[in-house]
Amino acid sequence: MEFSPLAVMLLLISLIQVSHPQEKPKPFLRVNPQSSVYTGDTITLICELQSTGWEFHWFKYNQYMQRLNTVVTDTNTLNMTVNNAEETVYMCLARRQSMMGEIYTELSDPVKITEREERPRADLSVSPQSWLTEGDSVTLSCEVTDSSTNWTFSWFTAVPYRDGLTQIKNNHGYIMHVELFSDSSRGSGGKYTLSPAALNHTGVYMCRGERGEPVLHTQYSNPQPLWITGESPPVSLIINPSRTQHFTKDSLSLSCEDQSKSTGWTVRQYTYSERVLDCSRWGSFTGSTCK
Asked: Where is the Ig-like domain (predicted)?
């Protein structure tokens, strides 16, 4: 029995395919952001293959390699919200139909992500001081307690409530409304300078760090008040009795005086909780003296 040249060629091709099965492609899995993330953040998984027409299977495992979740999508990108604070492993593979049946890729190499419960916090400080005279220069510095780098910073001021503002709780539990500086970008490196300081710069300032894509934000910083006053004669705080150490329940008086002995000055107390208290809250006021 003779075979036609075409039949011989087809037979040879089929034998080659049987004896040399096609190697399975292997996808490459990328995760953004590629470092630590925090509960509530969104991460993006990308399962990369050279060819198209695949259906993608996504696998999520805990640190003990117990499967937590499986998702199937028609695209090679998946956004997921982090909902557990632990180390998590992600993998993917792809599947498609062909004339020979279903074809599966190999499983991608695992990608490990550390998911943390509490996001890093931004710390805000001021130099040289928070009480300033109009025309002075002051620098606000924002740092992140997390050891990671590549943070950029945004700057905010506390404002009275109106629609569209961001509402936050400060580190003392008080609700505040904040607004982004119109020129916030000039402090993106972590320092924002007011020079010269003006009366309308008086207010409460906050900052926040961000990095990565999608963007990861820190917590808002501690609120930092700034008081800018007009030019005034130098005054002295007189403490009576004049000694370096005072004891609980001792009596003392605080007087505010300038060189001309003018009257009308007020003594106020500034507390570590960013509050200013009049003398009437903790003593009695006579002239320019609080006792």
From this structure: 25-108, 120-208
